[in-house]
Write a structure and sequence with these properties.
heterodimer; A: mainly alpha; Outer Surface Protein A, domain 3; 3 domains; three-stranded antiparallel beta sheet; 13 helices; globular; B: alpha/beta; Glutaredoxin; six-stranded mixed beta sheet; two-stranded parallel sheet; 4 helices; 8 strands; 16% strand; elongated
Amino acid sequence: MWAHVTPSDTVAVAHLVVRQEDEDEYLVGDPDQGIYFSVPGQGARLIELFAQGHTIAEAADILRVETGADVDALDFATEIAAAGVVGVERPRGRFWAVSKIPARFVKPLFGRVAWCFYAGCFVGAVTLFVLEPGLLPTYEDLFFTPSVLLSIMAVNVLALSLTGLHEVWHALAGAALGVRSTIRLDQRAYFPVLQTDLTGVWAVPPGRRFGPFLAGMAIDSVVLCAALTVKFGWTRGWFDVPPTLIRILGVVVLTLVVGTVFQALAFLRTDLYMVLLTATGGRNLHRITQLSLKKRFWRLTAADAAELDNAHPRDVSTARWYQMLYLAGLLWLCWYAFHFLLPSARIVFGWPAAALTAAPWGSADWWEALALAALAAVQLGLPLFIIIRKRLARR
Amino acid sequence: MKARLIAILAPVLSAGAMAALGLSVVVDFSVRETATALSCDQVPGTAQASEGDILLRYDAEPHPPYRTVPPTSGAHSLRVLATGVYREPLPEEAQVQVLAHGHVLVQYAAGSDVPALERIARGHPRKVVIAPYPVLRQGVALTGWQRLQLLDDADPVAIEAFIAAVAGRYRHGWQSGATDCTSTAA
């Protein structure tokens, strides 16, 4: 396959180990195959750019801007492909357009001033909740109009838009570092989630990875603080806005608060988990924690035991305390399911069921109940659909 | 240094969030256990006889007529309504649902000082629903579950007192030792 390498190809280099040997000499190796060779600094930089998801042509352009010299990236990629160290892939337009915005345009959004602003918004939101506890969301906020169907549909659109903005900010923060990303639908426990795949960010130094991981929560804080400021000012009578807008902002606050609490649950491999992993210098904390718990409460297979033996020392040491958080999280999930999801499911399904059986067939109440039942089925069935799709894809 | 700080903050935030969620449940239960409701003679308005706490299976389902204007208990819609300001009249079945959730309804006749009434309601974002009520010929009607007070005009002191005393007394059941006060009603 290496003979057909073209400038628009990407190069799979995630498995390579790169270590600086001298001022302008780097050792590149594939530990699985036992193949090692040395490259100059520009070669190491090219591997870094490939790891961030850039095509061969894009990597060459970036290096040309950085060094002012033309670099034959195609020749370099062809050589390492010929050595059997890497594979090349035809591009399938898989990167998200947002993540392809040139770094110079988005860097100001993730500079020191911007991060101070994001932190200020977070503190501001917490302060407003303390000053006016009546702003804390409740489930009643979901029903901002007397029409339940309209409320539920609007809430879904709003939640999707806010999630989209959260993911766009992840992608933009990645783009600010020159890292491309993809977006996909996934599930965590019984929650469906949109997720930006920032795999390329592992190619940048650890200290610079926090920005892309925290970017989603940063923009959430800005929107939350803005919504709360409007609600707070309106509550105090400082200005007038349409009351429907205030109730819609209530939905925004509820969605963002739930989202932020969800992000804080690191055991679900949320943004905070990635921050934790980076900060502790681990590799696969989630898996090692699972294995550690399995060892403690059950028994390991031979493959599990080998995986645990070969685990990165940082993962092993972090898992010692992280497994308590993981267990607490699992217990909380059970509690949440028992106290919120089951009662909600009883209402969401019980209400349409009662109306469908009792209301005159074809009446407005009957049609509304049917539409609500369909919506509820989609919402509850989505995580199940994602799990089945993932299982089928693995086969 | 920065990485070390975040390494400490990340688990603390995560554990803190989960602890806060659990704590809020404990606090909620303990507040309900320890709070004591006002005695009947301290609650403004008039106690009304119970017409039941009956859920309608659909909005147009027939039910006995309400015995008070506006209604204070009885058959109600399943539709939940967020607290706040509404500029359209609410169906009576929805009004009773609002009361069943422990909120106070402030409803006004045409010609009332609407901005003044809405200003009061805005100060209680979790307790009050305010809306016009064309059935009312004049003044303001304050309702809670099995509680009614009619005012000739937008009297802020009376409205604030009603909200403070009545909101949360009933939430699909009497809370913190409150009763329906019908045996002591004047």
